[in-house]
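Fold this complex.
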Amino acid sequence: MTEPGASPARRSRVVRWPLLLLAVVLAGFGTLGTLPLAESVAVALSSVALGAAFRLLPRRWLPPAAPLPPLVGLAVLAGYATATGVTALAGGVAALVLLLWVADDPDRLPGGAERALNRLLIPTIGLGIAWASAFLLPGNVAPLGVGVALLVVVVVLVALLLRRPEVFDRDAAATS
Amino acid sequence: MIEPPPPSFRWRPLSYLLVAFAVVLFALGVAERNPVPILTGFPLLLAPIVAPLIGVRRTPVVAVTGQVDGAGGTIDVVFRLTPEPPVAPGDLRVVVPTPDGVDERGPPRAALEGKRLRVDLAWSVPQPTVTSVPLPQVRWEDAVGLIERPVEVSGEPLAIERYPPELHRAGVVRLEHTIALPGETRSRAIGSTGEFFGIREATLHDPPRVINWLASARAGRRLANEYALDRTGDVLLLLDARPTPLGPTIDARLLGISRAAAYGLADAFLQEKTRVALGVYGEFLTILPLATGRTQRLRVHQMLFQTSLAAVAGPAERCAVTLRRYYARGMTTILLSPLADEESILLVPHLRRRGFHPVVLSPSFLPLAALTSDLGAEDEAIVGRVGRLLRREQIARTWRDAPAIDWVDFWSLGGFVDFLNRPTLRERGI
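Structure:
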């Protein structure tokens, strides 16, 4: 099988602005947490470097696993984060930049990150609303039980949707 | 030709990974009573849900055009994919299955050409090959790579035709008399032998002796003589597609080479308006009746593209008996067979007994066996020597019943074409 995209110019396309932006944002997010500065920066940079290394390798099964190290790094840093508005915002932004980096796949046509910018508009708006309602509204300590219940409902809905992809199918009718 | 796509779209593994991490972050936030992990996981959860809502909502349609370039064993294939709006060409993922007998020379390249996606493939063929390049398998992926949809592809498959160039000369051969009346029969078809008929524009394949140089000098462009063709007989191309003890890999390659030769021979004879028939013998005989013209050329091409190695080898006599039901005896028969086992060699005397006078073109298995061998140099030399002796013995046994040409250099058939062009040698069996 031949799949275009895996060209010799792939290596030069691994190190692009989304990778550098992710390293900076993740390191910045890490510095806002309770981890010591050196450790947080090391976690951020090593996870990003490992993700880039996965993309560099020619083996077929490693490049698709490239998002895994940065995701683990993000989860570790989020676990040590302090509960402040700035940290939460930095965490959300880091997740968005991570998605941008995922879109900049060197196995695909150049310009993936640029094409993905408008696709990330709704997650960005959603993050903004969630952050504003959590930290900017008066009485920002929301009842935890309600939050947990809402999260459970969302997770169940997502699970249902993932099992029924035809919900999103809208083919033209045969008579139209 | 339109290939129907699979029914539905699906989330890619990346979506599941992001959702799993979002759930982990949510659980972490609840356990630590900290909103930061929850807000961090929020975009990861939202992106896969939103992707199908803001992406393409129905099966995308892509028109595919392509061309095959290159010379000799080098093949450059270019596909151009034009998606219907609003699908962006950059979101298409293309997979092109590599046809059998074709190697990849370099990695494929994809580039945007305005609103089209251009895919360049660099292939090579180590041996003569005729095969069809199927339409690429295309799927649409959103920009982040979270979901994918199958794409409806419309277009025509391409054909790779690589055979020795000498075969262009093979059509001008005095054929055995298989027409009902004795002697040569005047045909109204126009060819390159017989009585002068007129002058036409020269083509690339016209040899210098056909060119009318005086007329060309007067007109300022190349003109060729055309003659009223004297049709003397018909041609039967017979392919032996039976499995042999050489194994399926070498068998398939040998059949591919035979197919390429049959393709070139059919084109050459049809160009001279000769009636051509095609038979493929595997377990049973599949035949294409005698005919000429462009339609017959298409039929021959189609049949050769579909020819594959049979699972079971039919007995040699069955082929000869069945052939006699469809074709007249005495017809010029070109048998393409590897002559790799007893049954293959037996086919020749059976054909003779039924009144056919075959000329055997036998692609040698020795170069292919050497390519696939994993022996050391010393062992390989001994095996090669024994193989050559065996091959010589097989060809010699075949010569008792019919002339057999051992085809070793797959990119050259000059000797075979010369042999066909010398009827005296053919009659004497030299």
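Residues 8-167 of chain A form one domain.
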